[in-house]
Amino acid sequence: MASSLHHIAILGCGVIGLSTALAILEDQPQTGRGSRSFVTIVSKEVPNLDEDSGGAGQSSSKKPSAEYASLWAGGHHVSDAKSERELRYDKITFERMSLLAREKPWSKKAAVTSGLSSSSVLPVPPAQTSNDAEKQAEPLVWVHQTELYEKADGPQIAARPPYEGVLDWYPDFKPLPQFSLKGGLSHGCTFSTIDINVPVYHRWLLHCFLELGGRLVVAEAKSLRQAVQLATSPASSQVVCKDIATWRQAGKVDALVASPGLGARFIEGIKDEAVHPQRGQVVVVHAPWLSADAPSWNDKPPHKLPGYSIVRAQGGREVYVIPRGDGTVVCGGTRIVDDWDPNPRPDTTKRILERCLGLVPQLADPKKSAGLTRPRAEDVQVVGVNVGLRPARRGGPRLDRAMDDVDGVKVVYNYGYGGAGYQASWGAALDAKQLVEEALQIPSSSSVQRRSAKL
After folding, report:
1. Do residue 14 and residue 82 come from a single domain?
2. What is the CATH number of the domain that holds 244?
């Protein structure tokens, strides 16, 4: 079979766009035969690979906006699926993340990057050798998760437990006995899952994308047509790639995957008014002493790090504790629909800390809290306060092929995942890849089982 070349553009460098780009690149043929795809990401905001994140992925010189929610998330893989498709995406992503957490491909010696062709916008870092805690942080860590459910007001109707079919597929799943639940709680369970150190994971994904031959164009596209133009003929100062010579073969864009987050509400060619923000505020705290303790009636937890969250009676998690494996813990949070305010609110910070301390008193600094009195918000070592605007969509995520092309370019929409972007990322990416392959009539190479060897 003769080789064929395709150029695919991705609009957006959030976790959905980046995972989709990697899903397309990772199955490239090792020989000159078969179909080969060039992949260009066009995005106005990208992770800062060359600087410490300060707990949130931001550079000291330029702080990403709250709309770049993928950098501000407090990521844990705890499914809240409301449909079979959402559950399938969550399971596929968990399978991939579990494989990555076992194989730890990020710990392998980094390839030489001196040949990288780029401006100073986004240099790819060399292998890290420092003993600094932030630099030693891993993108994904296993945790012992405790999930608690608030009791609804009014008469209780006998029904199946709220975790049934949603969480009971996770490894080491166990329901909590009723006698162990405090007042106001109706159900609880524990299981093993993955927590995501979002700044580290996101930078690592982008590094993998560049190492696999992807190209990044750091520029704002205000329309789908402009995204195609930027991906086809970018200015040299906007480009980051490993080997610029290979891109002389790329040619014009054949397909565009639109994953612009909240930008889907404003970008010409999409302008989806169902897209809206869900404002989230979290507090990053220093608590390296936090560890999972086994109650007297239960077995020793399989993982040292403990994660917690409380599901409200009306749905949604607004109290959660997410350890990141580097001594920092994300405490949350809020979910305020249609709130565009990017600034942290001090009163919200205090309420978050008080709620999380009520759930996990061990968050308090042992040197400040004697353990004889109830810990206060002032007893917690705060590293930072982050605000992110989750890119939600009324009616659920959009993942489909556009009815009309843009200047002959096939278009696939893949956006609107709100706060579920990380846990749905690989499932959504594989479906988006399949739509691209169908649009371009590329023989499909997608499968649920994915190797991480190239990542």
Report:
1. yes
2. 3.40.50.720
pLDDT tens digits, 300-321? 888 999 999 999 988 888 899 9
- For residue 345, the enclosing domain spans 133-195+276-392
DSSP 362: G
Q: Which helix (H) or strand (E) holds 240?
A: strand 239-241
Residue 455 belongs to some domain of the structure: no
pLDDT at 298: 67
Q: State how far the Cα of 307 lies from the Cα of 381, in Å rounded to an integer.
A: 18
Residues 295, 184 share a domain = yes
- Domain check: are 297 and 352 in the same one? yes
Residue 216 to residue 205: CA distance in whole angstroms: 13
**What's the residue count for the chain?**
455
Closest CA to 357 of 382, 331, 335: 331
> Residue 334 — left, alpha, or beta (φ > 0 → left; ψ -120 to 50 → alpha)?
beta
What distance in Å separates the CA atoms of residue 238 and residue 214, rounded to the nearest whole number? 14
Which helix (H) or strand (E) segment is 286 a member of?
strand 275-286
Q: What is the DSSP string of 250-262?
A: --S--EEEE--GG
pLDDT digits (tens, 9 = 90+) for 86-105: 999 999 999 999 999 999 99
Q: Within a domain: residue 448?
A: no
- What pLDDT sits at residue 443? 79
Strand partners, 148: 188, 310
Three-state DSSP class for residue 283? strand
The DSSP string of 54-100 is TTTT--SS-PPPTT-GGGT--EE------SHHHHHHHHHHHHHHHHH
DSSP state of 168: T
E-strand stretches of 88-197: 117-118, 140-150, 174-175, 185-196
pTM of the model: 0.90
Residues 293 and 228 in one domain: no
Q: Does residue 123 sit in the same domain as residue 9? A: yes
* Beta carbons within 10 angstroms of residue 161's beta carbon: 15
CA 333 remoteness from chain centre: 16
Dig out the tokens for 173 from the structure. Answer: 């799943």
Please count the structural domains in the chain: 2
Lowest-confidence pick of 30-44, 402-416, 423-437: 30-44
